[in-house]
Structures are given as C-alpha cells and as structure tokens.
C-alpha cells in the first residue's frame, strides 16, 4: 500500500510584531523555488495578515505565548494555518472598506480577496485561522 504524506513545515513564533517578518521569510524560503512568484507573494501577504491578527487579537500575547504557523503543500494548493491561544473577546471577521475602523479590520478583507478559501475555528485550546491559495493559477 502506497501512502501520500503532505509536505508540511511548522514554525513556532513568539507573539511579537517582529515575528511577522519571520513568518513571511518562512513562506519565501519554503516555497519560492517551486512555485510561481505571484503565488508565493499572495501566500506571503495572507500569512502576514493572519499572523498579525494572531499577535494583536489572541491571548497568545499574554505571558509570552506562542503562535504556530503551519505550511501544508497539497496537490493543487498551499494551505497555511495560524494557530494561537484564542480570544475570549473577538472572533475573526471581515471589515468592509468604508467601515469606520481606521486602524484595524482590513486583514481578513485582504485574505478573503486573495485566497481561494479561508476559515477559522476555535475551541478551549485556542484559535486557528487558515487559508488556501491555488498553485495552478
């Protein structure tokens, strides 16, 4: 019996703004040689937005918590998951342009516009925001 194991990379990030550039670098280094530049740039932008949201909105920022970035290569797409400590006071949502939130709320709007699919879920262990970008386009 032949099994197929998905290539996957995990990066543990500290919950600080400086780690967003480290997350972007993990995307570039892991994918740039094998996928078109526009695909990698899309994944990089979506990663930047979701990691930033985890840093700003999750309880991972309390007491030196961590964020896990998973990069999973599927047959025709890349799936990225950002796993954090969760939040008791906010849930991921899209803020439309023109909504009166001048400093916050555009990240998931961009992810929704750029990614092929995205979603989130949370339970007592934390939160997960994921997105997928097709590699064949």
Automatic annotation (TrEMBL):
PANTHER family: ANTI-SIGMA-F FACTOR RSBW, ANTI-SIGMA-F FACTOR RSBW-RELATED. This is ATP-binding protein. Residues 17-129 form the Histidine kinase/HSP90-like ATPase domain. InterPro entries: Anti-sigma-factor_SerPK, HATPase_C_sf, HATPase_dom. Pfam families: HATPase_c_2. One of its GO terms (molecular function) is protein serine/threonine kinase activity. It comes from the Bacteria. Keywords: ATP-binding, Kinase, Nucleotide-binding, Serine/threonine-protein kinase, Transferase.
